[in-house]
Amino acid sequence: MNIENTQSQMRKGVLEYCILSIIKRGEAYPGDIIDEMKNAGLQLLEGTLYPLLNRLKNSEILTYRWVESNSGPPRKYFSLTEKGLEFYKLLETTWNELAAGVNAVTNKPEQNKQQS
Amino acid sequence: MKKVININFQGQVIAIEETAFEILSQYIDNLKAYFSREECGDEIVNDIENRIAELFGNRLKLGFNCITDEDVESILASIGKPEDFDTDYDESSDSTSGEKQSSFQSKKESESSKEDQTRLYRNSNDKIIAGVCSGLGYHFKIDPVWFRLAFILLFSVLFWVYIILWIVLKPKPLESNASKRLYRNPTDRIIGGVCGGIATYFKIDSWIPRLIFAAPLLLNIIGMSSFSFFPWNKFFDNVHFNFEFNFSVFLVYIVLWIIIPKATTVKQKLEMMGEEEYIKSIRTAVSDNVANAKSKSDIEVSQYQSSTLLSEDLNFDDKKTALPPPPPKDSATLKKTVSEPSERSGCLNAFIVLFKIIFFGFVGIFALLVIAALCALLFAGAAMMPLKALFIDAGMETNLLIFSAILIFVIPLIALVLWIIPNLLKNAKSRTIVGIVAALFWFLGVSLAGMLATRVANKFKVDSVNEKNIDIAPFAGNTLHVEMARYGNDYNMFDTAFGITSDINGLPFYNLNEDSLLFANINLQVTQSEDSLFQVRMISSISSTDLRKAKSDLKDFSFPVLQKDSILYLPEFFVTPVEQGFRNQNMVVEIAVPAGKTAVLSDDLDNYRENVIPKIVRRRYKRYSEIYDRPPVDTTNVPNSERKVSQGELETDNI
Hints:
B: alpha/beta, elongated
């Protein structure tokens, strides 16, 4: 079993949820998303982010509009669609259940092992 | 010291170090390749380019003059290498990790390649046949073109060396490391850019090599005109200057075209021009570019230009067009001048078009000639089929012939097809194993053919000669008339393939009967007789594997001579059994004329094909004539109407 592989599997699962929650707060462009993720200590490569955004856009979860930038080329600002909002809510409940469940399982003291 | 160039990247003019630009364009190519699998891959690449442009812009805003290698490296590290992306949800986790490992390994390998420069490899990056020359060039840090030339000029000697190196050396992608290389110059070309490249290499004007290459053609055109304006016309005609010289110059051009690579990337152009020259050209180009960038119209243009223009070296083209500086009135015209080569005067243009027409005409004719030669070979092979039996026994030797013919002719055909099809499908993978196997089979075919050739040559190993004397019965009168007795039976002309029969006269000097071979290669000699009688001597010769067989074969010769009073009939052919095959059978008929008498030869006897005495008989003759030192024959009274034959050539002909 490869540790790197397991780690990246874990990270992949929550990546979409994180990105969508950033976008849900308000329109965001990829540079913002990267910065915010980095500040939160979650490493994210542009090379990973852009294809992901592209896929979400293609499945009509995200939409974007061009905004002129005074520094450099125009930017794509992403926002959630109706469908995206539903999608996000589903993800949210799933995550909450998952987080609670995982915490419950992993944080239990070791006594139960001896009992059984 | 580093060179800085301006690029138009996502609508922004960015000053970037040239090496950094190389890294960047390499990276973007990788991205394109990586995302080509993805839906809307172009859009993703475009977005990423956009992001890079923005990061560049931020960097430049901080007050840095240009983008350096380090900047690019750090930005690319934050974006990530394609192999680090976690995009492949769909693929199983095992395969992604496998990919990662393999890419990691390949990285390791490329690092190690830098370490052991001492080993000799075949270069799989820059190859024409197998990359042997290129690998040699890398090893000795010399332009591979010189190795290629050496291999071509000394083809016969170095052919095997090349094949052995091909087999022994391992292929490896190598970067070229010669400081200056001969390239074809894509910006200064008329046909293939060969002359332009040579001119750049030797730092001369490009019309000099061009004139050298075009000179024979021009002289030809001059020579074609019927006016003898030029005194050298006749001289050139006399030395057959026209075709051969023309052709060889043409061939040299083609060879150079093939062996000299085209300079496409910036690095290659740098190697082509040498560093100083390139800096100069860049300097002029950059200054032009900056001036252009300041004008408003250029910004408009930049929006029209797709991001793919990045990978092209715009400035370099600009340099050529810069001579008549194009006023950028609107975007369309400017774009046009960028993409097209410099304008030429109408006359020159017409000349170039003419030259191209002539050139491609030559190529077409050459291709047709090759095809015609192949067809001729095929027909000739079919035509020779009936003759096969005369040289080659049934059984083992026939099998040898068939196998070697198949291997020699079919293997290259298969190899060619195998090579062409993937190339047409743009799916070119190096299939060295197929090549090696095909080469091995081909050499097997050649060696079988060699075996066959030695076996056939063996049949001509031993020569034997037989002599037979016929006394002519005495008759009244002093003149002997020698006539030809026509062969009464039918004989076949050679029935060549496809219902074409060829004329007997056109073919070698023998014909086929059902059970006999008819030979007309008879040499007729007239000599002085020792006594007062006419004599006829027949000397026949044959080659064979051994002497005993030769002797017994000689006995089977049939050449019946008939005398009717003063007329002597010689047969049209001498006849041997067909089983003998062709073994260099020959016959000399010698008519000895006594002193004071005359022999008159009929014109029909001209049909005998052999004009000179066969070598093997001549050897025998020499000894003969030394023993009997005979005086020349008297040929006084001969009728006018008939050809008189004097004797005496014989001794002079002997060597």
